Amino acid sequence: MPPYQYKPLNLDTGEIRLVELLPGAFDDEIRISIVTRPFTPLPARPPFDDRLEKVRKTLPQGWGAYKTREGRIIYDDGPTTTYSHPDTHYGGPSYDDDRHALEEVELIFEALSYTWGSEANQVAIEVVPTADEYRQESSKNADTLLVWSNLHDALKHLRGTTDSLILWIDAISINQGDLEERSQQVSRMGDIFRSARNVVVWLGLASDDSSSALRFFGHLGDQIEHTEDDFRLPLPDCANPNWYGITDGAQFASDPEMWEAIHKLLSRPWFDRVWIIQEIVLATSAIVQCGQDTILWRQLRSAIRTLYKVTFPAGSPPSLHELVKRRCFLANITRGKSVLFQLVAVKRAKYTLPHDLVFSILGLLPPVISKKIQPQYSTSPREVFRDAVIAFIDGAGSLDILQFSYLSWIPDFQINMRYFGSGTHRCSGQSTADWSYVDECLLVTTGVAFDTIEAVSCLLLDDDGVILKQIQKIWLSGGSEGQRYPNGDSLSEACARVMGQSKSRDYWPQTSYPTLADIQTPYQRMIQGGLDQDYRQEPALYRPGLDYFKLFKTTLGYFGVCFRTVKPGDTISVLLGCSLPTIIRQQSDVQHRFIGCSYIHGLLAGEALLGDLPDGWKTVGHLDTYGDFHERFIDPANPSVFSEDPRLGPLPSDWIRVVAPDRQWPSKKVNAFQNTVTGQILHSDPRMLSDALRARGVPLKEFRLVDTPR
Hints:
Helix content is 25%, strand content 22%. It is an alpha+beta fold. The two termini are 50 Å apart.
């Protein structure tokens, strides 16, 4: 049989190709038809709304309401949970809107989420003409199409014996040999998976006791419900209502062989594929299939989130906790998560082409950003990454995407570079980026040159003794506990805050992080005992995510950490619209090279622009109901109340505070500022605009960042 020949899609009608999987016995040859149909996507429901707030106002006393990760409302009064409003006469909004909308869609199909596998393992399947093709060309015979063996396995297991199944499958529905079509169809994949009646996740053939693992996940996932704000509640009418509070994994399963089966199932390639992030997050309904066994994605997702917070019994695979942690990252992604959070996810995933690191999440990005990115596989990966950065800065008004860059303002998303976290600091206050894009290699930003790097450590590795010696050499040489840091803190506190990256209960009061006093104990002992003590006797250092970074000290005496490319003589700058201090290297009289973002204690709350906080004042982190970060200021005279930044002064008379649509997700309502004369809405503080800062004497300057080869 001749190879199948694709015909162009009709872009005017929005055509897509669908695969009709023809019925047959399990061992029969795979036979399909390929049909084209006009496609109008299901309208995207905004990721944020005020329905939960409205529901909470209608609750009887003693009841609470929460939104689950799937968008349902669960009601809780302590002993009881239910998906039904406790007031039987309540007639408010439904949370099954997407399911009801799917029932109105005329084009009914399922979408397959799977891994391609090796090109070396391909199998021929038969493509038979459709009825329409027979009418147009009665002599037309069947063709062949090569598919990867993993897809062939999936089709055998999905095929029914009596009825056809209509599927959208990327390897077949897109002409992979046509770069232009691939680019055009890739931009529609988010709409396709969101509009599918069901998404089928194919994990592969049954093996390594996968049946037992899926049964475990299905049962565990039916006991516990996880809310958007990270509460755990017993699932309504579950068999084990007390499981939501369990932290000992042995109470779920004590058999080491079961934990080994769980480890092997979570190690399957599907979980690491970059495209599955968008495919599963956008799915309105999804099942997970391994061989003939199936469970709901909701069950698997809930079980993974539950296992993240348990201790596994003796005999479990040593790497199981780290594996569950990685899978939990996927389980936590929702539409509306920050762009930076999603970029962290794709940087950990596997891909076929570097372009996919951007194109694979277009359906998850805010439209104000995604519409500025046009998929083109004919362009270079660097052009794709550059365009993504510009789209983010323009859409978000922020330079925070530079956290993924080093040695150039254009990041290479192929490098799995660690970063300091998304939006949990405010080194430039509540400012917006003051920038311009001059040409293909020049990004002009505005900020201050604050300090210069004086000394740099060797590369930090996973060795507490080496790290402590580098701290002594770079930060504490000649210092004493009585000596003060530039902002007045003790040196041991400065060490603890940098190494702990503010992940302490003092900064995040509602967390289980260690206290600052606990974190700084090794540094206090080191200052008191010098270098002669036995570092092996010290408690383990609290240093989340700092392996392969370098310590540095500045001319003014600040301590910081940065990616490994930092050098003495580099400039510490604070750029408007960037949450972290940046390191800049002079290239010429008028041009600079972006080296990387850094974490510097004493410069994370706007000090480089506004000066230090008054004596006794401190900042704490706060996450609002949307999960967005806000820095709160605490006045020592009234510590129980959050105050405004005392350095800013009163709001100008022509500006007022308002609640307005968010810049990236308009359905989300956020605090903003409005000009009473012009009506202009600002999501940044007008007191942090360039002109306002210059008026108060801040020495702002331009940094002309050039793209230079690494």
